[in-house]
Amino acid sequence: MDRSAEFRRWKAQCLSKADLSLKGSVDEDVAEIVQLLNGQEQFFTTSSCSGRIILIDGSINGFEVQKQNCRWLLVTHKPCTKDDVIVALRNANGDAVLKFEPLVLHVQCRQLQDAQILHSVAIDSGFRNSGITVGKRGKTMLAVRSTHGLEVPLSHEGKLMVTEDYIDFLLKIANQKMEENRKRIERFYSCLQHALERQSIIRSYPKEKVNKKINAYSPKKKRNQEKARDRCIAEENDKELENNDSPGISAAVFPEDDEDLVLTCLW
Fold this sequence. Notes:
The protein has one domain (3-266): SSo0622-like fold, CATH 3.30.1960.10. It has seven helices and 14 strands. β8 and β9 form a beta hairpin. A six-stranded antiparallel beta sheet has the order 1-7-9-8-14-13, with helices on both faces. A four-stranded antiparallel beta sheet has the order 5-2-6-10, with helices on one face. It has a two-stranded antiparallel ribbon with strand order 3-4. 43% of the residues lie in helices and 25% in strands. The protein is of the alpha+beta class. It is elongated. This is tRNA wybutosine-synthesizing protein 3 homolog. It catalyses: 4-demethyl-7-[(3S)-3-amino-3-carboxypropyl]wyosine(37) in tRNA(Phe) + S-adenosyl-L-methionine = 7-[(3S)-3-amino-3-carboxypropyl]wyosine(37) in tRNA(Phe) + S-adenosyl-L-homocysteine + H(+). Keywords: Methyltransferase, S-adenosyl-L-methionine, Transferase, tRNA processing.
């Protein structure tokens, strides 16, 4: 089976499966992105979360919350109030942890160059911890991620270890991060639309006509304005992310399944 046919088979199988998430459906804030990607022949999404504030009751092993052996006391994809957390904490009898988790989006791509285009969109939108994974069987995955999360323990063995004022302070920070996450999602959707339109133009014309078509797409003055705007947006994004994200460069080889070795690159 050729690669394109195999990719189409994978896509059909994935999109025909039931949503096994706790919610059972795609989050509202990321639904347009998921729909846009799944409507393209070169992409399909395998999982997504638009970002959430959660309160987990469980045990902490060295500062890492084990989600498999814990209870979810509270989960919301919208801003949260102190009263919501206080009420949920009444049901805690272990080590309760308040967390904010930003957008996570996993997309399988037909070819590496498709993943690279999507990776550039993610980076330009503020998701600077995004990475590409390539498997031996030809599976190319893009993970859209950022690092502006939050994780704070609130109780130990059912006993509240912080004041209500501190919980209120933490929620202000978490809600600010939620708002920043929403803005990045909007930027991602806008950048993705632009990238797909440009790729459509490139695929529709012979190589010798591509540059001419792109140049005719808008007047020179408009192109210069767009370049200046893009530079301003990039500079603004860098300032916003300077204190939140710490992008690095790393590569690691590890098993994807029992049969695959994968190379993951994070920019």
